[in-house]
Task: structure prediction
Amino acid sequence: MLAGAGGGAYYLGWFDPDNGYKKPLAVCSMVDQEAGNELSGNPDEMFENEWEIPGTPVTEYSCNFPVAYGDEEHNDADVAVLMHTTMNNGISRATGDRLAQEYFTNEMVEGNELKATACPSGREIYSGYDGGGTTRTAMAAALVENLAIEGTVAPAQYSDSGMAPEERRKAAEDLLCGALDNLPAKG
Result:
């Protein structure tokens, strides 16, 4: 009887290690700010954001580079880190690592039809377009323990004068790879 209870607890996630990131991240200190400002064409604007996504065990930390009001030729750029924390509903337990893995695989990679590629450092990432179409926001994504990390570059308002889709995808990859290179150690 005791072995059955122990097996059930194992199956429900009660013994899974919880070793992921726990402290808030300053994403703008991880990102190549000069590149973000160049993409947005707005060297005076950069915003660090943090918000807990209601009803989930997820906190988003991001660094945004918005275009200036009325600018139709440049691209909004963003790097976001979604930190997943352990969720316990009283019966089962899911670690942040497991929740991040499920979100990353199902929502980011498969949901957007992202393709595997790599940073110059050799780290595996995935890139493509939000929703799959090249007229959409270019995105690059990576999974690091309980962190789902993405870099995005939106099309210009007046798309004929903005970056080509492939250039936006490459810029999103560069933003993401730079952030991964500067990801702080867990503490």
